[in-house]
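Review session, final week

We close the course with one last complete record, chosen because it touches almost every idea we covered. It is Reverse transcriptase domain-containing protein, a protein from Phytophthora fragariae with 105 residues. Go through it on your own first, then we will talk.
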Amino acid sequence: MSGSVIYSAIDLTDGFYQILMRESDIPLMAVSTPSGMLWEWLVMPQGLKNSPATFNRMVSHVLRPLRAFAPSYFDDIFVHSRAEDGLSAVDVHLRHLRKVFEKMR
């Protein structure tokens, strides 16, 4: 981030809920409500022992090609830019943001 002049922080809202549970694990996460209903998580819930590590690994893997200008920390992505190749810092930053959003699509 040293030398950068423009910064953006992106928070991945409800990021855990974007990771699908493995089909064989769905019954293992089922809970029964007091009314007798059965609730099965189809996506990774928060609160599981390994949920944060799994989510962080997924985000790091997806953003690996962009890590030079978009490092991540759990559900936060920090995009930083400076002028380069004759482009202004704003133009470079917009290009970086587009790349991040395309990856997260």
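Two points worth writing down before the exam:
The mean pLDDT is 94.
The radius of gyration is 18 Å.
Good luck, everyone.
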